[in-house]
Amino acid sequence: MMEELRFLIEVLVGGLLSGVMYSLVAIGFVLIYKTSGVLNFAQGSMILFAALTVVSLLERGVPMALAIAVSLVGMIVIGMAIERTVLRPLVNRTPITLFMATLGVSYVIEGAAQLLWGAQVHGLDLGIDDSPLEIQGVLVSSFDLVAAAIAATMVAVLSAFFRLTRTGLAFRAVADDPFAALAVGLRLPAIWATVWATSGIVALVAGLLWGARLGVQFSLSMVVLKALPVLVLGGFDSVAGAIVGGLAIGAAEKLSEVYLGPLVGGGIESWFAYAVALAFLLIRPTGLFGRKPVERV
Amino acid sequence: MTALRFLVLVTALAAGLPLVYSGSYLYDAILTPFLALSLAALGLNLLTGYAGQVSLGSSAFMAIGAYSAYNLTLRIPGLPLVAILLASGGITAAIGLVFGLPSLRLRGFYLAVSTLAAQFFVQWALNKFGWFSHDSASGVISAPALQAFGFRFESPVARYDLSLAVVVLLTALAFRLSRSQTGLNLIAIRDHETAARVIGVSVVKTKLLAFLISSFLIGVAGVLWSFAYLRTIEPNGFTLDRSFQILFIIIIGGVATIRGAFIGAAFMVLLPLGLSNLGAALLPKSFDSGVLEMSLKVVQGSLIVLFLIVEPNGLAALGQRLWRRALPVRSGSKPDAQPFAPPLPETLNGEI
Q: Is B192–A270 a contact, with Cβ atoms under 8 angstroms apart?
């Protein structure tokens, strides 16, 4: 009995920690969705691009700090370029049109990243130890712990930024009501550019952690598909939702893999998160923390 | 020239083509995949373009169609071709209806994400359960030639003719549908669901009907894709990328038009060929298949963005404008007598 319980806790903790990794990707979406109403499908390819740039620079003998700095600048430039060339001309178009545009952008970035750096698989070593730690008899990966700590720090910094700085206040104003924000003299384009740059930074952090976990290759951009159920569960416009959703999806996925997977032959992680999110949506169509749209005829 | 006459004319030209030219490359590598993709895009266009329900799971429904046809030919020997096509489409439609149920409750992105569930679930199920592929060891099945009245559709031209017949018939039906009350209902729930409900459109019925018809067409397209074009079937041939490709076809071709699906599909089939020739001419040394694939992605992605910004109604609208400019309206000819010209929406409306 004890042994089973310990195993259950181990699975649960592993799930929650990998859930943090999902949240990390999801936060990038929420940032942009909140302020500009765009579901940025290109977040995944931005993650790929960031990680690929760092790895390729490292392999060419550039020191880690410089590689990350270069990639950081690159991501900020890309984020702002997307805002400038793609979203600004599409202002006032329907959300689905904007989503499709980011789908196009994700194809461009994916293709360009691999044209630039090649399509082979790279390993990424961040120098974080990945040995199992034993805490109260429960085995936990130390890499997962560090990753979770980094993610938590980032969330804390972002929340503080939103809550305590003037720019953060402007972000929240725009998220609340773009027209009112415009009317009181906030400069929307500048704010959008900042948000897109921020999401580029988030993509870099997510890219480094995910890249260290999975190896840097094309499939890295597919982590976006892991983040979507998280967003659906948490609501597209809530940072708290992204975190809670990530934890819930991570835990549910690991538990189902261990306890439900063997019953149907395994491999269910490709769709299980979606099934959970969907089942949840049928009860609450705008997610845990999403805002309910008001409709006028 | 009315739409019907236009359809008849194009069909006659397409059917007559093999009489003048019989090089198999044209049929095998260009026209047959073009027809299958057009049909799939037509199906998606009814759902996404007309009814405004965005789906990212089209290729899963193509897979369901293909596997249904495979299992039908395998397990019920001697089933007539028409029955195979109808039943494969019917099975896909039934499953599409199930995956369409969330649309009654979800909108916009939430619905788009839920269609991804269909995509992943179907791919997983087809890979996981050997029954679907008759326990084929590699998972790649070779599709038997389709037969009707003792004739085997085996040669490239025969497979092309079969695809042409199926696509023309279904296109004519889809065209009729788009002009009927049901077609208007689809547009009504796309443009404003609540308003549509207020004026008495049954939203539940219309949405489910959209999923049903769209899945049927995409399922049949899947049969043509695997039996007439590839002649093999494997779950990995129906990935998310294929779903995106079909979505791109309707964006580039023209959302909520019948001809948009065809123009877009033609463009998508010709683009890689054009790009590979261009690349080979410009960079003869370094232009390998990997580079081609990546540059194709960049070009496709840029085109999507460009079209959404500059011409949201796609090549169809662009062509129509050029056509109008080339032929100024003469007195006596009706101004709206354009080939296939349903009312064009302002943009694809996908409110949340």
A: no
Q: Note the pLDDT tens digit of each residue in A67-125.
A: 999 999 999 999 999 989 998 899 888 888 899 999 999 999 999 998 998 878 888 88
**CB-closest option in A96, A114, A295 to B294:** A114
- Is A289 part of any domain? no
- In this structure, what CATH number is given to the domain that contains residue A82? 1.10.3470
Q: Which residues contact A202 (CB under 8 A, 6 or more apart)?
A: A24, A27, A28, A31, A154
Distance from CA of A139 to the nearest CA of B (A): 31
Which stretches of chain A are DSSP H helices? 2-36, 43-59, 64-82, 95-117, 142-164, 166-176, 178-183, 188-214, 223-234, 239-259, 261-264, 272-283
Task: For chains A and B, count residue pairs whose Cβ atoms are closer than 8 Å.
Answer: 150
Across the interface, whether the CB atoms of A95 and B352 are under 8 A apart is answered yes
H or E element in which residue B90 lies = helix B81-100
A258 within a domain of the structure (yes/no): yes
The residue range of the domain holding A75 is 2-283
Q: Is A30 on the interface with B (CB under 8 A)?
A: no
Q: Tell me the CA distances in angstroms from B211 to A163, B40, B51, B53, B170, one per residue in order.
A: 44, 13, 9, 9, 16
ipTM: 0.87
The tally of domains found in chain A comes to: 1
For the entire predicted model, the pTM comes to 0.89
Q: Looking at the complex, report in whole angstroms how far the Cα of residue A1 sits from the nearest Cα belonging to chain B.
A: 33
Q: Is residue A69 part of a domain?
A: yes
